[in-house]
From TrEMBL:
Domain of life: Bacteria
Name of one Pfam family that matches: Glycos_transf_2
SUPFAM superfamilies: Nucleotide-diphospho-sugar transferases
Protein name per the record: Glycosyltransferase
Stored InterPro entries: Glyco_trans_2-like, Nucleotide-diphossugar_trans
GO molecular function: glycosyltransferase activity
Organism: Gaetbulibacter aestuarii
Length: 325
């Protein structure tokens, strides 16, 4: 049986959400054969137990493996990619949802219509898990942007790859996994996207096909300054590598560096980190009023607490007014 597309699904402690993810995948309506290739990075909860139950219920559809030891997100992705049998790779996470039953079919049809392209992006809704709020088609601006703008958004790390499909052979041809893993990079999406967009043409499906779940327990949204600071610096390291490798423009480099320092300053203020706040504030060339506020919040805890109190007050007021309408 020839596999046209592999769903590359990496998981780690997704017990609360993995059923919704798997349900959305097994319900796909396709005129081709596909597989769900799962790489579980030694979850400590019931994630892999749930996956095994689905594999038993849907024989022939799943290709699953649990790592003997934790490989990290990039190592897990590469190991799972090596087991994929499809010509196309649909990359997905164990806490997101494919909301359209025709999503995989739409990807394959796009590649058939334009066989020269290397990858296809698509729209998604953003689900704010703790607030139980959905932002419809939250990446609309990047999906409808010009190709040049879209490429720059990828270079700047401003494209979140929820619901992307790649040609497997081109991933191997252009993505330098050995370098990234040798540098102990823990981010998997940004390096793949930059390497691919610098070598391949692409298309975008102009509709929202997926739901991207944002919650505090996910790897990229863990709420600690140390984790956020670590990821920010990993991104900066990658960006510096890419701008030397691909000769990014001076204006793009300046934009990224300024945005990086502003992001660090914001979180330094939020988590009251004086050293990081001082360092990032001094590195910002064009300071705004918000930058000064975030700096004061990092140096004087009372400022940050007053800001949070103000936000909490307006949030309660908004809910109260909303309930009366």
């Amino acid at each position: 049986m020839s596999i046209e597309l592999s769903v590359l699904l990496i998981t780690y402690n997704n017990e609360l959400h993995i059923r919704e993810t798997l349900d959305s995948l097994v319900q796909q309506s396709c005129d081709f054969n596909f597989e769900i290739a799962v790489g579980d990075d030694k979850s400590t909860d019931k994630t892999f137990e749930i996956i095994r139950a689905y594999a038993t219920e849907y024989p022939g559809l799943f290709n699953i493996q649990q790592n003997r030891s934790q490989l990290g997100i990039l190592g897990n992705l590469k190991t799972t990619l090596d087991r994929c049998n499809g010509r196309l790779i649909f990359n997905f996470d164990g806490d997101d949802i494919v909301k359209s039953k025709e999503a995989l079919q739409k990807f394959v049809d796009t590649f058939k219509q334009k066989p020269e392209i290397g990858f296809v992006d698509s729209g998604y809704d953003r689900l704010l898990n703790e607030e139980n709020k959905i932002i419809p088609f939250s990446n609309r601006s990047s999906i409808f942007a010009s190709k040049e703008t879209y490429k720059n958004l990828i270079k700047l790390g401003q494209v979140i790859p929820v619901g992307m499909c790649f040609k497997k052979d081109l991933i191997y041809q252009y993505v330098d996994f050995d370098y990234y893993m040798g540098q102990n990079i823990t981010i998997e999406d940004y390096p793949i996207l930059v390497d691919m967009v610098m070598h391949c043409d692409f298309e975008r499906i102009e509709e929202s096909l997926h739901i991207y779940r944002v919650h505090s327990s996910s790897y990229s949204h863990k709420k600690s300054f140390e984790r956020i600071y670590f990821l920010n610096n990993q991104m900066l390291k990658l960006f510096n590598h890419f701008h030397k490798k691909y000769h990014f423009s001076k204006s793009l480099v300046e934009t990224y560096v300024e945005t990086h320092h502003k992001s660090v300053l914001f979180n330094a203020g939020k988590y009251e980190n004086k050293n990081a706040g001082r360092e990032s504030f001094n590195s910002i060339k064009n300071k705004s009023i918000r930058d000064y506020i975030h700096y004061w919040a990092s140096q004087y805890p009372i400022v940050g607490r007053l800001i949070r109190l103000k936000k909490a007050f307006y949030s309660v007021l908004k809910k109260s007014l909303g309930s009366r309408m």
